[in-house]
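Subject: for your reference before the review

Hello V.,

The reviewers asked for a structural picture of the protein, and I figured it would be easier to keep everything in one thread rather than splitting it across files. Below is the amino acid sequence we used in the manuscript, unchanged from the supplementary table.
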Amino acid sequence: MKNYDYDLFVLGAGSGGVRASRVASSYGAKVGICEEDKVGGTCVIRGCIPKKLLVYGAHYSDEVEDSIAYGWDIDIKSFNWETLLKNKDNEIDRLNNIYKKILSNNNVELFEGRGFFIDKHTLQIGDKKITANKILIATGGIPYLPRINGVERVITSNEAFHLKKLPKKIVINGGGYIAVEFASIFNGLGSDVTIVYRGEQILKGFDSGVRGFLANEIKKKGIKIETSKEIVSIEKSGPDNIVKISDGGKISADTVMFATGRVPNTSNLGLENIDVEVDKKGAVIVDRNHRTSVSNIYAIGDVTNIINLTPVALNEGICFADSVFGQKDRIMDYSAIPTAVFSLPNVATVGLTEAEARYKFKSIEIYESNFKGLKHTLTGRNELTFMKIVVNSESKKILGFHMVGSEAGEIIQGLAVSLKIGVTKDQLDSVLGVHPSSAEEFVTMRTKVS
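And here is what came back from the structure prediction:
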């Protein structure tokens, strides 16, 4: 066998790449990894973690207001955007250093820079050439921007974490996770927020009941939603931007954010030099073992555009390392993956939507509930919680859990465990609820709505 510098070299030190590298190293492989930005990837540096920190910050405006009903008289003079960003940045720096220590402690050598394929075993990183027996592509995704006039004036989620000033008025183009979460963040911090989305309803792909319910809840908070419309151009007008909409309307805003999806980060990797097959979106095509069209090259995470979630990338990294270096033949299971949208209120779901279940099964049962939580019986806030259970009528197995409400992301985790092991509606009904809590509603719904 040819003598390579490394048994495995990983492109991208995000969640998946770091996990794969350290697990491979634990099996005795000599491993190197490169990263052109901070270590931790999209989730840790410019995604899930900083975004949820901002969500935490945004929810305090309601909490302070609600505290009055519980006897508190809190004097909050103002909100300081710069303080929130500084503290967020300090935490991201801390996590970056932790990830570097994880690599170092697991004998994974870190190279700072972007890897570029010279051939299927050779990479150029800055002025260095590295050879490796096996190479793993884990470069993640980047924000997508459409080609319209004035697009150079917009920000994406990347820039949203580093704005010098909190927007007074912001237009957010998009209706997915990122758009809805940032709409809640800026709304909670005091900005005037408008969502413009080309679809009929926000959160495409989620259960229809969830989509409509969340839209109503965030509208109550003052977020404006313009659906079935697109932004066609953006023009500068003094200190503001004039956003032109496909229906002929115009919106003035100091900040315009595009959250129109992400694309695989595969440009300028030199994939054309090694004939790695990609799809029309640039995603690296892999088999069930995460192997590409080139036998010694693999890919995991958002760069494959299979299911773009951090826990998926992490588990793909484990499956790859276990199979290739641990001889365990681990195959990633993509079924029943729980997910949450950290809007205000939260959305959380696991399993099939009602539409998916109706398409797949002969007969299903639907259980739904919406109610005002105990907390708001005193505050008087018109905030509701929504829960939904999808059941196979024949087997009585639960097919899906869906929720919109406070702490939905926390509540769904336990339900995901039960769904994964095949819980039935009868078994769910036999469980005693934790009283008083919102979560108990999932084990007390008895009346079918459909």
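For the response letter, the relevant points are probably these. The CA atoms of residues 46 and 158 lie 6 Å apart. The chain has a mean pLDDT of 96.

Happy to draft the paragraph if you're swamped.

O.
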